[in-house]
């Protein structure tokens, strides 16, 4: 059976940590930033872990 290919969009958006968890960039930080609080924008700048309910879908895209 041939090797499975990783989805190229997923490999640009997700990073696997050393313990096997998956990090991603938070949404809503690209435009229309004037109406968002400074605290919210600062929080959105941080990376976040993928939710447990989405983990299987992301792992399938990354072929883990």
Topology:
Layout: H1 8-13, E1 14-16, E2 22-25, H2 38-44, E3 47-49, H3 55-62
Antiparallel strand pairs: 1-2, 2-3
Please, could you describe this protein's structure?
The chain has 64 residues and is an alpha+beta fold. The protein contains 3 helices and 3 strands; from the N terminus they run H-E-E-H-E-H. Strands 1-2-3 form a 3-stranded antiparallel β-sheet. Strand 1 and strand 2 (22-25) form a beta hairpin. The longest helix has 8 residues, at 55-62. It is elongated. The two termini are 16 Å apart.
Number of distinct beta strands: 3
Question: By helix and strand content, what is the structural category?
Answer: alpha+beta
**Helical element count?**
3
Residue share in helices? Answer: 25-40%
SSE topology string: HEEHEH
Lateral strand order in the biggest sheet:
1-2-3
* Count of all domains: 1
Per CATH, the architecture is Irregular
Give the biggest beta sheet.
3 strands, antiparallel
Give the low-pLDDT segments. none
Assign the CATH class. Few Secondary Structures
Radius of gyration: 15 Å
CATH fold-level assignment:
Factor Xa Inhibitor
Distance between the termini: 16 Å
Strand content: 15-25%
Shape: elongated
**pLDDT average, as an integer?**
96
Compact description:
The protein is α+β, with helices and mostly antiparallel strands. The chain contains three helices and three strands; from the N terminus they run H-E-E-H-E-H. The relative contact order is 0.26.
Tag the structure with descriptive keywords.
16% strand; elongated; 3 helices; three-stranded antiparallel sheet; alpha+beta; Factor Xa Inhibitor; 64 residues
């Amino acid at each position: 059976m041939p090797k499975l290919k990783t989805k190229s969009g997923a490999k640009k958006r997700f990073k696997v940590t050393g313990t096997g968890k998956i990090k991603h960039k938070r949404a809503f930080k690209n435009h229309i930033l004037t109406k968002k609080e400074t605290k919210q924008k600062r929080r959105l700048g941080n990376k976040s872990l993928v939710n447990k309910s989405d983990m299987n879908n992301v792992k399938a895209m990354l072929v883990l």
